[in-house]
Amino acid sequence: MQAAVLEAPATMRVHEVAVPQPGPGEVRIRLEGCGVCASNVEPYEGQPWSTFPGEPGGMGHESWGVVDAVGPGVDGLAVGDRVAALSGKSYAQYDVARAEMVVKLPDALAGRPFPGEPLGCAFNIFRRADVQAGQTVAIVGIGFLGAVLCRLATDAGARVIAISRRESSLELARQYGAAETIPMHDHYAIISRVQELTGGKGCERVVEAVGKQWPLDLAGELVAEGGRLVIAGYHQDGPRQVSMQMWNWKGIDVANAHERDPEVQMRGLREAVEAVASGRLDPEPLYTHRYTLDRLGEALEATRDKPDGFVKALITY
User: Fold this and answer.
1) Residues with Cβ within 8 Å of residue 22, at least 6 apart in sequence
2) Both 306 and 235 in a single domain?
3) Average model confidence (pLDDT) for the chain?
4) Its pTM surpasses 0.90
5) What CATH number does the domain containing 63 carry?
6) How many structural domains compose the chain?
């Protein structure tokens, strides 16, 4: 099969490698596609602890496809089932996943892309945010996750303030339900505008969905006393400093919404499948760019550079 290999920093090439075989409790999936995650960008560029070459298919974790082999001891899944999976080597034509980390896709999703991991992640973030009707929710950073969270929070009866750099992102937020949008250019102007919109109280819920120091600083400033700061951005490029004095004084809750419990991860994935299949959530406008496997490097660079109108890239096979 063909699999992408990160040979060196910013050097991705397709290799011919053996098709993986499922072991006990595993299934093999003939992949239809895999989403490109922003968390891939820094490993792609190389980090001090990186070693090369990487594993074939490595970094790909947003996959969907069709089961084509079933290992011993697997119940409830069969060859031909169309599925989304939580696995880790899906920048390839085939990947293997634990059966308990696979969910069947209903007929309503036939022929439609379904990068299950980020969709499930959005639902898990939303659960940790504990959004209630009547609250004001600020979302700092409108990409794929931020847009989905705009829709979920709006549908829950909250008023959403979306904050992002690009006008195209702010327009996307409006399409997904945001009541107010603020360009993310001036730290104090943003704080002032949020104070104006909330009568000086701040927001009961703030979701930081960027993964950088300034957005985290900004998000902390926007939380109301007794509110909740939800960290959805993936902070992988070094330590962070926080204004603990301000956090203490406000008495805020801080939720790190990166779930590692497999059962929780799968709960979010199942919720996402139900929401998209029922029509309650339409993520397809967010899949703005598609690439073949041999153009994975381009997809990662677009994910980093965000050309106009970019939200999410998919690799399709």
Assistant:
1) 28, 69, 70, 71, 74, 96
2) no
3) 97
4) yes
5) 3.90.180.10
6) 2
